[in-house]
Design goal:
Strand content of chain A: 5-15%
CATH architecture of the largest domain in chain A: Up-down Bundle
Radius of gyration of chain A: 17 Å
Oligomer: homodimer
Chain lengths: 215, 215
């Protein structure tokens, strides 16, 4: 018996974030899939659920929720254990600032619809689109590595020794980087944290390769 | 006597969001300015405060906070009145989903450093960069107008009859649109809410044109 229905796609890193949160918090969920490359997220029945035509959408508690970061905050407010945000306001601000650096400064610029637009609008080929992707990763991963390496609040994970929203945004980005051949050598702290996350079943089960729609 | 120091720029819409929140919550603050077009956000002294070299940074309560959305959540947690999020989890999820549609799906793709990169990387001229800007506004403003026009929770503002995080993200985007000559005719609900916000002193005082560094 499931408590929720997630509309996602195996490679969608925003769906990946929500899968990790549901797994960590022990929410039983079913999945249905919208193949992004086939444009299934723009089908009329899906637009009724999610007018932006974006993934993911989570049906839970009789509600239909959109925008992955909003879904994560909702899950945290309604299912507080295990906590994905620290208790103190300063700690919460640090976690959110790390999460948003990833979720705002990389993913929106590098997602599929933007890369496709670069091709049609500016005639970018696959290699030019990949170079764009790697550029915006580097612009943010450099400062992020500095912060995570130098700030005392960093522990086994981005903030202390349990995963937070920041880790939920970090791992899908690192996994996404692999497809675009990002050199991770300059980011030893990020790589260490990513490896620590992937030791946990909640993260492993959420990996794109482990979804029923994986190709 | 000020309680906070905001490092911003008059035209920075992320700084604009924070100015509105500080004004609404009655936090006395000083401002210092980093001229984005002159690259002052990449000066070594600023990078110590904000390793990403992005605006804004808020110094408050003895802390240095980055990422505007994280700052807004911090202000809401530490200075809850007037509330910028509803009390119910579903309402909060709605407000955040509206805010994030604006803050994630438009602004990161359309900010100055991305537009400059389009010029150097793909040879885009000013008009091509403006067309890109308008495209990504339209992609999100269409569904946003639909949601705001049809969802019963919309009131005088995005959610009910008092401003929330969604309005704090909406107004700076609408003001930004003017410079790029976005036709607002298809968005009567967004325009109505924007006008209602700009009746409030907290929003008016935060307008780019009303900052000391306005050109």
């Amino acid at each position: 018996m499931s408590d929720a229905l997630l509309h996602g796609y195996f490679r969608s890193s925003t769906s990946f974030r929500v899968r990790i949160a549901l797994n960590l918090k022990g929410v039983a969920y079913d999945q249905t899939f919208r193949h992004l490359r086939k444009g299934e997220q723009r089908a009329p029945d899906y637009l009724k659920l999610n007018p932006q035509g974006l993934l993911p959408t989570l049906e839970i508690d009789g509600q239909t929720l959109t925008q992955s970061l909003s879904i994560l905050e909702y899950l945290e407010e309604t299912r507080p254990n295990p906590a994905l945000l620290p208790k103190d306001a300063i700690g919460r601000a640090r976690v959110r600032s790390l999460a948003y650096a990833l979720a705002l400064e990389i993913h929106p610029i590098n997602n599929l619809r933007v890369l496709e637009d670069l091709k049609t609008r500016f005639g970018a080929d696959d290699e030019a689109a990949a170079a764009w992707f790697r550029h915006w990763v580097a612009v943010t991963f450099g400062p992020l590595e500095t912060r995570l390496a130098n700030e005392p609040q960093t522990g086994a994970f981005c903030h202390g020794d349990a995963p937070t929203l920041a880790d939920l945004c970090l791992v899908p980005q690192v996994i996404n980087n692999i497809r675009f051949k990002v050199d991770m050598t300059p980011y030893p702290t990020i790589s260490r944290i990513n490896a620590a996350c992937l030791e946990l079943d909640a993260f492993k089960a959420a990996l794109p390769a482990n979804q029923p729609d994986a190709e």
